[in-house]
User: Fold these one by one.
Assistant:
Number 1:
Amino acid sequence: MAFEELVQRYQSKVYRLVMGVLQDHQDAEEVLQETFLRVFEKLDSFRGDSTFSSWLYRVTLNSAFMKLREKKGSTMVSLEDALAYIEDSELSSSLNWPSGPDDELITEEVMKIIGEAMEKMPEDFRVVLILRDIEGFSNEETGEILDVSVPAVKSRLHRARLFLRKRLDEFYRQHMQE
Amino acid sequence: MGCKEALGLFPDYLDGSLDADTCRRFEEHLEGCAFCLKLFESYRKAISLFRQAHLREIPVDLSERLRGFLATHLKF
């Protein structure tokens, strides 16, 4: 495959991941460019021990986390704060959410709530959520990409989803009372 | 099965990775517990909404700038 074709095929996947980690358009663009430069330089070192997309995600995450470390301390929510919030959220709702097809529930407000929830979530959780629920990797593949155990992947995924659910639940609770 | 145990099984149930006996006990719990059923439905819906919100393609202008950047640096 020509490199240009490779970029065409994977650019949206890389974009989603770097935006998911960085939550900033300008940073994401820089990392996107840097990632594909690195991929070009390192392509010969890809040995086929893992799938190409797993390898590509590892290269992408290395660049994204490097960028994140440069900015560390700016707007990050601590893991402890997020976890406390998630634990608190687990068994807090008995609300009926709106029924109907999900694509009709994706309003601008809901998009905003989801975006804000992502910003407040620790990056380790965001990444797992994207790899599992957007890109469709298995727990094992996600663990391989992130170099963490399968139980750690499963725990982060569950907590990230509960965090997201909690934010949406708060939104619907307020919205449906109006 | 208690509510806490059922809550912990949401991901595996959605992955279809529970063994037959645990799967049956999980479903029985949800049938008999309106609270957990609502929680599970909202959990599943949150995942679906997240997918729809985030399964986006790269913006066209950004894709064009990336192409320009790589063309300059890699000369393809």
Note: DSSP finds five helices and no strands in chain B.
Number 2:
Amino acid sequence: MPLVVLGLSHHSSPVTVRERFAFEEARVPAALQSLRDSGGADEAVILSTCNRVEIYAFTQREPPAAFAALREFLVTCHDFRDPLRDEIYTLSEPQSVHHLFKVACGLDSMVLGETEILGQLKKAYDLALQNGHTGSRLNKAFQRAFNVAKHIRTETNIQRGSVSVGSVAVELAEKIFSRLGDRGVMVIGAGDTSEKTARALLSRGARNILVTNRSQDKAIALAQELGGRAVPFEDWAGEFESIDIIISSTSARDYILDRARLGPLMKLRRNRPLLLIDIAVPRDIEPEVNFLENVYLYNIDDLQAIADDYLKQRKEEVARCEQIIREKAEALLAHAGGRAPSGSVRPAFGHE
Amino acid sequence: MSYLLLLLGFGFHTAAMFLRGFRLDRCPVTNLYEATTFAMWTIVAVYLIVGLWARLRFLGAFASPVLFAIGVFALMPNLDALHGKRPELPAAWTSVHAALMSLSYGAFGLSAVAALMYLTQERNLKFHKLRAVFTLMPPIQRLETAAGRLLASGFILLTLGLLSGVVDLTHINNPHSYRGDPKIVWSIGVWLLYLGLIIMRWRFAQGGRRFALSAIGSFVFVLLTFWGTNVLSPLHNP
């Protein structure tokens, strides 16, 4: 009775298909119940995120029969009647165990090495556990997956560094300021990337956020979303004294901040460090301001270059991670009491 | 781990200094070798105290090589000269004076270490250089604060040390004959130098690079001239 996985992810299907298979969290316990009632699985966990919908299950059936039952369940459950080609993949041991470990470590994620998936996997497992849909075998497999994820995080560099523009900006801010909680952040121009960057700063403790935009309505709307305050575009320099981080993304043709203007403003701030994130194209901030003391200017290319560099480092770590995963998966499978001869159903780990 | 190793080394160092101190019946700061090793001891002592806060433990990474270099210097020949006849000064006040002065140099030394780390990190941030140490080092604002506070602590210790030296001198006959002693003049110069730095930092908000460079420059000046003035001073090197 092996561990089997059936599902679809960003590797196999577009979002237009994935969204139709997604499970709302509230529906998951009932879905798991009907899956078990139909005999499709003895133990099961459903993982549903924006990038994947997967069923992890232990079943009495042979893998081909188990996959057919799980597929039927998934399609019926969502009333999906369009033709499917390779969107849904199936995995049996040992690949299913490898896959579970890879997902837990973020190796199968769209952003390589990201950690959000581990939280989502834990949540999916807890939901199944609390509703009594897991047993000793799935419990062991998932607990082991969480341990492997922890091991990989501490032993490799797969999660080191930031790989998105927003998180690079946050990392830079954390390398300059002791605490983000008491730093003033100003968003100039209400663009998508600047909003994401501001949100990333908020998630790391920034509190005092000011938003300014040529269209005051947009500024007010974004300020409300971010829990900050809108400032008229003509007056933004007046607030400069309390500002430590500026995220600029206006569509202005000329620089809105240049060296001649910033020099006196820095004196007002008693030369406290200032982080300038210029994500506008054409640029909003004159590059020469970086020559001023205590001013740190990064444009979109600088941030992207750092993110790319980190991503390169992460990719170099993949082989190491996969080696660790292979070893851990083999250890788990060996613990199950050895493999059965080929042709028969493999024994699952966890037989007591 | 490095903190524990330093703690162990500090333990041995303390034991050795106590043995020497008991033999001399005073704080073992009677010649250049002893003064150098004592300065090392005080840098480690100050580090071990500030290292109690995990946030400041990073200083050890940069302080250890500096300590090693000073240690090598202390082992140079002829520094551990025989103890000559000293002016008749009370041992207790002399020990207090020497200890306070050394502790202040220890704090100045660590302040320079924090300033050096600040400059390294500041350069990385300014020129967008991504290096391994970049991710491990603390934020520059914390480094700057650490450098500033260590420097201020050093200044307070130096002030107390100089005052204890004055008290010490009042115990001998004709203390005015030492008025022009090079070491005394130099120490007052060092005190004024650090006073200038403190005024520059807190009164005129001259933080950042300029302050870090000044903190390092001042400590290098102290290191380079400490020995020279010691040799020239009849009071400190009889």
Note: Residues 338-348 of chain A have pLDDT under 50 and may be disordered.
Number 3:
Amino acid sequence: MEYLANAGMLIGIYIILAASYNLIIGYGGLNTIAHPIFFALGAYTAALLGIGTTLPSVVCVLAGIGVAVVASVALAVTTLRIEGDYLLIASLGFQLGLLQLVNNFEFTGGPSGLSNIPVTITGPGRGWLYLLICAVLVVVVVWLIWRAMAGPFGRAVRAMRDDELACAALGRSLITMKIVIFAFGCGAAGLAGGLYAYYFQYISPEQFNVAQSATILTMVVLGGIGTTWGPLIGAFVLVALPQAITFMQLPSSLVGPLQGIIFTVLVILFLFVRPHGLVGRREAGVAH
Amino acid sequence: MSEILRLENLCKQFGGIVVADDISLTLSAGEILGLIGPNGAGKTSLFNLVSGVVQPDSGRIFLQGQPLEGPLHRRARAGVVRTWQHMRLFRSMTVLENMLVATREYPGESMLRSMFATASVRRAEAEARGRAMDLLARMGLTQAADSIVVDLPFGQQKLIGLARALMNDGRCLLLDEPMAGVEGSNYETMQRIVRDEAAAGRAVCVVEHNVSFIKDLCTHAVFMAQGKILQRGSVDELTRSRELTELYFGTVEDHADA
């Protein structure tokens, strides 16, 4: 039972991460790989406040979202003004640098992380209650992103992706749209972090490293970048598949490498066969 | 005629190449000014300077007496709008969507307002839709509203480029080679619309290689070469000038009878 709830929580959390990352990279065309660090900022902020204060857990999670948003705006304002893929480099530096700090500070628990996150919900129904909260939040996040992209904002964003110069010359502020997209996406990652910290009650720096960036990117690419449903399907497949492998009763020394191989094969296969992902358009080639 | 756009001593240099050399110019309401000159004369660069694609090294620009400064989108919001030689339409979008993005005020640019489709966004959208359909009707392109823009014939795409710019409803319209590749009825339509928009009080500046279009449409023209304005005058004066013809075509002898 607890196993199913764990898997469900992971799927929900990864759907939020993949959907918000898809908003940033797929719709916004903002090349960043630092999504896990905003996941981490949400998780660590919520966890530290939960451990160190008596604030209600909802407030701690909201604070985590706030920290992720503030950090993302700071990163976006400083890097997006410069032309070119400066954001990509800066985001990588931001992620690695911040992870180093988390790894070395005492109050973040160093490499061993934080394991004394307080229990908020107890009793036999804990897993299901969390799963319900998570499901509601997934629906809200996905709905908000869908709603924004289906309306006039999404139209302006598509115009920006088609031709930045023409879009700006018609009066649209690209920098504002980019910062808003980035802040919203990173805030959602912060929310996922808060959920993760409170449910699993254990976080450590290695959960937010570049391998995690690759996982979330794979989910988006596999599902279909720039689509509504792609990230959901990508997150589901890439969480469920490794769980399924653990049922095959292979020796544990094989499970890790096998998952790595399957991930890599999937990405290469998809780049050849379905470059637009599972729900994306079928034809191969570069989108114009 | 009231002055809309004034350029004062604009200079711009890229490395050793001078694209604007002390350019001063005024453009009045109702006027259609032609900008002619050989390739590389700095005609499109002048549009880039006015619309904000590049910033001048020195000199100033005024729109209706107010300094026109800052990034592209601010200038568009102030009412300077341009088209592009290569159209730069939003390729993945329909004709109507292309046009709806181009309104001067666009409440949907706010993600929150867009998400919750507040009444004001819906009103603005409905109003813009109405204006877009009116413009398309004037161009005889009503039935193309929901086509993906790149599926249209080239001449119609050029018209959509103009229609999109007109959604801005700005006082100053900069048209970069509107006639290149446009023939037949689309040619007539382009002329009619540009003329009507000027008559409605817009100041229009046209870069064009098609001299007969300039002759038909413009009362005055400016001849540019190597980033300088060499002469301003009536189109007839400019095209009769032996010196300018030589600059334009290379040699006079080959075209003496033209």
Note: Chain B has one domain: 3-255.
